[in-house]
Write a structure and sequence with these properties.
Largest sheet: 5 strands, mixed
Order of helices and strands: EHHEEEEH
Low-confidence stretches: 117-124
Helix content: 25-40%
CATH topology: YaeB-like fold
Distance between the termini: 20 Å
Shape: globular
Structural class: alpha+beta
Radius of gyration: 14 Å
Length: 124
């Protein structure tokens, strides 16, 4: 079994937007999101919805609200699951600007990795 682990995208200034979003959730909502992320960690991409390119989406049902986490598999065998964007879902479709933000963050992450710049991440 392949071991997968979650990492949070970090901006060049050191912010971790998804980690900050998750930290602001209430206990029940945070537990629902954590369970959804754990399912993907254990089952792989079959537990997520492919959006486009390398971007996938996790759905988590909180208390009277739905959350989405956009992420991309990284690493040699996709063993690192990089969170890119987290948001509260308010429409049927994932807004295109949210997907574009995830794509920009992924490009930024990959470019910094190619230049061998230090990228600090933390596991959930």
């Amino acid at each position: 079994m392949r071991v997968r682990r979650w990492r949070h995208y970090e901006t060049p200034s050191g912010r971790r937007p998804v980690k900050e979003f998750l930290g602001a959730l209430g206990e029940k909502d945070a537990a629902a999101v954590a369970a959804a992320m754990e399912e993907v960690q254990e089952e792989g991409l079959v537990s997520a919805r492919h959006l486009r390119g390398k971007i996938y989406e996790i759905r988590a049902d909180g208390y009277k609200v739905v959350y989405r986490i956009l992420f991309a598999p990284q690493g040699r065998q996709g063993q690192v699951l990089l969170t890119l964007v987290a948001f509260q879902k308010k429409t049927r479709r994932t807004p295109p600007q949210i997907i574009q933000l995830a794509e920009r963050r992924l490009r930024n992450w990959e470019e910094r990795g190619k230049r061998k710049m230090p990228i600090r991440t933390s596991d959930i």
